[in-house]
């Protein structure tokens, strides 16, 4: 009989980057790359495990913006163009590299991989949510929700109605897509404060994931640290991240992804090839971008990079998957001796790490799942809701305010570089609450405008924008997104209150920012 459990949790999120008004939006490539390198490879992993009758269990949050993009007709058409372009480039690379045996071998790999990616995409009718729903229905995958647009909720508590709207719309959009309500929620950035408890309870949520500090600094101090859930006073369970397993995957010093045999992320054909050759496969304005064709392995801390060897990389992924499984087994054996309840090791990561930043990440997950299913282990894979259902005696504590950001606080999302955002958001939130309270039975066009105002506010609240600004990456884009949604909201507010709604403009904005088609502005009452 198992002595404990391991729960692997993948947080899947991208901001809403849908831009039909732009011919070749750079930001849409974030989504296309994630499909190519993360989501479809994981779907292939799950299908492989099902084919081999491996009894795996895994949990994924799929945020409402990502769900919406995966279901969007326009983005799916653009993705088809993108993957076909990848295949075309890989065909050219077969010819270009045919006289270099070692290089050509990698080119052949990419050509086969891109074709397999397209095949999987078509297998699920060009709707990847069809795949995730299948695994959810089979009981192997538990999908949980997130707040509507991944807003950092503790920083919105000055207007509790805004927090309530984010959570309730996150639950509602999940339910519409999945056909059932979510059991748990991934709090954006694992950011928690006690003001969230009652709102989570109102929405029927049973658990959430916390940074280890949120558990370890809880009051009273939990008996078993992060090796068992704790329960808030209103019955919501919190599960804490296990830092040992986290470091093995995340750490740039001791983490698996830094192995010299793995693919080098920072050398891409989009930057290495001559412009006249690569121009059809990068941004149409001539901006060099990643193509996904990367010929080198990490090699070491050197400018000289050796060619990628797929077989060696896969062998290393299997070795690391086995090592990770053994480590969790050893931990369960050690800690279970001093616990009166079975321990659970919670391993939460960003999904986009597996496949995008760490190319072999999905292969690592597959090997870990295979190793974890072996009967010789003293642990079993489990989802959080299954663990909670099996173990009704859970210690009641008040979790500490925390996040999984730097310093375990909110400073990544609120600092000198981005604090200006919140004054604008809070002003819009107050106006949205006012609108929701004032208009009880509006006519159709005014209802449309009210609903669109709610969408614009939620899109402005995304935690991605302050995060990008703090990390100084695509800062101009993040600032533009905040300002654009705030300006659209303010125009809508003005038009609604003056009873002068511009129907043509409203129709255009509804088509651009079309997230949450069933949203009801009254969630802000």
What does this structure look like?
Pfam families: BE_C, Glyco_hydro_57. Residues 8-306 form the Glycoside hydrolase family 57 N-terminal domain. By secondary structure, the protein is of the alpha/beta class. It folds into 2 domains: 4-407, 7-stranded beta/alpha barrel (Alpha-Beta Barrel); 412-524, immunoglobulin/albumin-binding domain-like, CATH 1.20.1430. It contains 19 helices and 10 strands. Strands 1, 2, 3, 4, 5, 6, 7, 8, 9 and 10 form a 10-stranded mixed β-sheet that branches. α6 links the parallel β3 (141-146) and β4. α3 packs antiparallel against α4 (101-123) and α17 runs antiparallel to α18. 47% of the residues are buried.
Task: Quickly describe the structure.
The chain has helices at 28-51, 64-71, 73-96, 101-123, 128-138, 160-178, 197-202, 212-216, 243-250, 269-272, 275-278, 310-336, 361-372, 384-390, 420-438, 444-460, 464-471, 475-497, 503-512; strands spanning 4-12, 58-62, 141-146, 184-186, 207-210, 230-231, 237-240, 344-350, 379-381, 395-396. With 525 residues, the chain is of the alpha/beta class. It folds into two domains: 4-407, 7-stranded beta/alpha barrel (Alpha-Beta Barrel); 412-524, immunoglobulin/albumin-binding domain-like.
Core attributes:
10-stranded mixed beta sheet, alpha/beta, 19 helices, 7-stranded beta/alpha barrel, DUF1957 domain-containing protein, Glyco_hydro_57_N, Branching_enz_MT3115-like, Glyco_hydro_38_N_sf, 525 residues, immunoglobulin/albumin-binding domain-like, 10 strands, globular
């Amino acid at each position: 009989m198992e002595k404990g459990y391991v729960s692997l949790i993948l947080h899947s999120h991208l901001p809403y980057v849908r831009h039909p008004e732009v011919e070749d939006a750079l930001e849409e490539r974030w989504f296309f790359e994630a499909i190519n390198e993360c989501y479809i490879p994981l779907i292939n992993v799950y299908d492989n495990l099902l084919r081999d009758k491996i009894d795996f269990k895994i949990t994924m949050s799929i945020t409402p913006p990502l769900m919406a993009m995966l279901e969007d007709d326009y983005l799916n058409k653009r993705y088809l163009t993108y993957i076909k372009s990848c295949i075309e480039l890989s065909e050219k690379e077969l010819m270009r590299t045919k006289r270099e045996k070692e290089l050509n071998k990698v080119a052949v790999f990419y050509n086969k991989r891109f074709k397999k990616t397209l095949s999987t995409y078509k297998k699920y009718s060009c709707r990847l949510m069809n795949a995730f729903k299948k695994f959810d229905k089979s009981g192997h995958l538990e999908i949980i929700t997130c707040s509507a647009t991944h807003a950092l909720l503790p920083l919105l508590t000055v207007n509790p109605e805004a927090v309530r709207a984010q959570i309730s719309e996150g639950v509602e959009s999940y339910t519409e897509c999945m056909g059932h309500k979510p059991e748990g929620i991934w709090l954006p950035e694992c950011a928690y404060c006690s003001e969230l408890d009652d709102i989570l309870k109102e929405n029927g949520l049973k658990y959430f994931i916390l940074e280890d500090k949120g558990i370890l600094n809880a009051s009273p101090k939990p008996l078993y640290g992060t090796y068992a859930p704790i329960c808030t006073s209103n019955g919501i369970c919190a599960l804490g991240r296990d830092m040992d397993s986290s470091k093995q995957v995340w750490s740039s010093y001791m983490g698996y992804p830094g192995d010299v045999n793995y693919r080098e992320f920072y050398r891409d054909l989009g930057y290495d090839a001559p412009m006249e050759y690569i121009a059809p496969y990068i941004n149409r304005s001539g901006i060099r971008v990643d193509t996904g064709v990367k010929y080198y392995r990490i090699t070491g801390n050197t400018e000289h990079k050796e060619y990628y060897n797929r077989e060696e990389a896969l062998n290393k992924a299997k070795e690391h998957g086995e090592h990770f499984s053994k480590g969790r087994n050893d931990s369960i054996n050690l800690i279970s001796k001093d616990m009166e309840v079975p321990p659970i090791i919670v391993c939460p990561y960003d999904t986009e790490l597996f496949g995008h930043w760490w190319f072999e990440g999905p292969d690592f997950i597959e090997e870990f799942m295979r190793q974890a299913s072996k009967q010789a282990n003293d642990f079993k894979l489990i989802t959080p809701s299954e663990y909670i259902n099996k173990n009704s005696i859970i210690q009641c504590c008040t979790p500490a305010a925390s996040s999984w950001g730097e310093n375990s606080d909110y400073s990544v999302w609120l600092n000198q570089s981005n604090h200006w955002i919140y004054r604008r958001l809070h002003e819009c939130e107050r106006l949205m609450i006012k609108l929701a309270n004032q208009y009880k039975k509006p006519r159709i066009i005014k209802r449309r405008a009210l609903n669109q105002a709610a969408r614009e506010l939620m899109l402005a609240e995304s935690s991605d924008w302050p995060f990008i600004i703090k990390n100084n990456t695509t800062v101009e884009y993040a600032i533009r997104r905040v300002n654009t949604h705030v300006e659209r909201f303010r125009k809508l507010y003005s038009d609604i209150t003056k009873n002068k709604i511009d129907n043509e403009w409203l129709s255009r904005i509804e088509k651009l920012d079309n997230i949450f088609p069933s949203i009801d502005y009254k969630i802000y009452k």
